[in-house]
Amino acid sequence: MIKYLLTSVVLSFLFAANAQNVEFKSANFKEDKEGFKNAVEAIKKGDEYFELGNEAIFLIKGPGLNYELALIEYEKAQKFNAKNGELNFKIGVCYINSPYSHKGIKYIYEAYKLNPECDPFMNFYYAKALQLDNKFNEAIKAYEAFEAAYKKADNFNKFVSKGKKECRAAQGAISNPIRAWVDNVKSLNSEYNDFAPSVSTDGGEIIFTSDRPNGHTPNVAGSYDKDIYSSSLSERKWAAPTQLKPGVNTESDDISNNLSYDGTKMLLHREVDGQMDIFESTLSGLNWTSPKEMPFQISSKKANEVYAAYSEDGWSIYFGRDNATRANGFEIMYSSMQSKIQKNYMAAQMISTVNSKFNEGPVYIALDGQTMYIASQGGDSYGGYDIFVSERTQGTWGKPVNMGYPINTPYDDFFFSSTANGKYAYIASNREGGQGGFDLYKVTFWGPEKTPVTATEDYLLASIVNPMKDNSIETKVDVNKKSFTVFKGKTIDAMTKKPVQANIEITDNATGKVIETFTTNSATGKFIITLASGKNYGIAVKAEGYLFHSENFDIPKGSADNLVNKVIELKNIAIGSKIALRNIFFDTGKSTLRAESNAELGRLVKLMNDVPSLKIEISGHTDNTGSASLNATLSQDRAQAVVNYLKGKGIAAGRMTAMGYGSTKPIASNGTSDGRQQNRRTEFEIKAN
């Protein structure tokens, strides 16, 4: 390249013409010596931060506030002289290495026009600007020019090779987009940075992080610390975000990581004594508790840990850790519990198959337990962070695969949180066209048109007080290999309709094994859980002072995803209270108890033992199919079979009576198959207490 060797006379002329590079020399600013002096001092001060930021970037570390502080100074000088190539270059670099990277493109272009040799790294950042601008062929040429012109390029070979590789990958991806929409969630975003989304499995609640003004004191760069916010979906619209209460949010940075699948726990990371560590908060009533630091196996004292996620079974925590002994930035680790009761974690292990030579970002484990979504600056990225998918095969996580365009772009695209059906996900990106720096985006994966699920009343997590309607889980696109049903609702008093805190037990009826136990919210009675298809489930709901409630439902193998939304009314233990034993099964046309009934019968035995004053009537009921006499006999025999079982478990015969009512006491219409199924039931009624 030919260097621009201009005399001060020519410079003055060009300055007047407003067309060429204007050096910061006193001769060019004789009429404003004070302004020139202040501008030069600002540049000098900004350079100190600029160098620190550059050093961090090329060591694959975060630049902290250095570029922000440098920008404050550079922009003072820019107001004085906007036609200096080197200053435009530095401003452009500051922006490109910030959440507002799209703002850097015009400054780098201007710097290149004014003086393409203003800095040894001009071609490198010119290439980055072209890459962000989707001008990939030109970007590759600029990367090659940097290699050829800069003698020390070998020291940055991996960055240059990475840039060229990204451009080629992006070209192919944009020409062959995946079947998905990516839409800016404008109602959640601000002119600041909004990122780290985590959505509930039903898609009705979201938490995220923002550095918008929050009532705290701004830092030295004039920006605010990061706080965690929540919002709920009502009438298909996200409500205005609400800042979580103090305790979760502090005067320091508090960054959301991941909601547990039942919505009752949340992982976050925050800065403590200059170091990032992972914390956990629990939903108690309407509020999140003050976060507790995770054990040292996860929150160590020798490294920074960020962006943690729960495994699908709750046994493991996945997270990012920077390793001082390696030059690869943050790497993905995991730590598993030896016991859920004691919550003692094992030493963290690195997942070498998913880590690259650059920073690995937020991680998310899908409900199938075999799919990991991971953000990375390495691999087959299109530029910045991209979101990748890794599949676990025979216990080993495979090489991450780029999710494709338009999910990923040459900008930073990271975070991934999905609804249970896999049709919707939320990500964060600082791509051009957003409202601020990082914005939240909704990804909708395309699928065949299907009839929407019938509108239903939807009850959100307990931190949300407004109910919403028509928030059903739609049929999924076949993204994950497994399908799931969201079972949600709330437990209330049958008489007063007020919320009741209750224990819920989910049983695999085929094996009798309890697969999940949890407690509904103490303030609202709300709950949410996801269940895999291919099983018949028994649900037992117990609360002190109430009769237990039971349900069973079958989710056929390979069935489309669904939403079960249930308001469970619990009855006080009072004379006259009745309960249908939905998980007691008989052979067709017979009174022989099947093995799948054991879990339900065991709960009934426990109730009788826990409340020794109870006297009950066990009643059998049928639909109206067949003769009345046969139905009466069958229902009586079935009721007696239950009584005989209870006797065999030590329950005194005098506390129980068996009655067969046949089809005389229907609770639903016998005109439908569903109604007839409801009428075929075993009940017990409290006769004395």
CATH architecture of the largest domain: 6 Propeller
Number of folding domains? 3
Radius of gyration: 32 Å
CATH homologous superfamily of the largest domain, by name?
TolB, C-terminal domain
Poorly predicted residue ranges? 1-18, 451-480
Provide the structure class: alpha+beta
The CATH topology of the largest domain turns out to be Neuraminidase
Helix content: 10-25%
Mean pLDDT over the full residue set: 88
Number of helices: 11
Distance between the termini: 97 Å
Main beta-sheet annotation = 5 strands, antiparallel
Shape: elongated
Measured by DSSP, the beta-strand proportion falls in: 25-35%
For the record, the CATH class of the largest domain is Mainly Beta
Number of strands: 37
Description:
There is one protein chain. By secondary structure, this protein is α+β, with helices and mostly antiparallel strands. The chain is built from eleven helices and 37 strands. The relative contact order is 0.07.
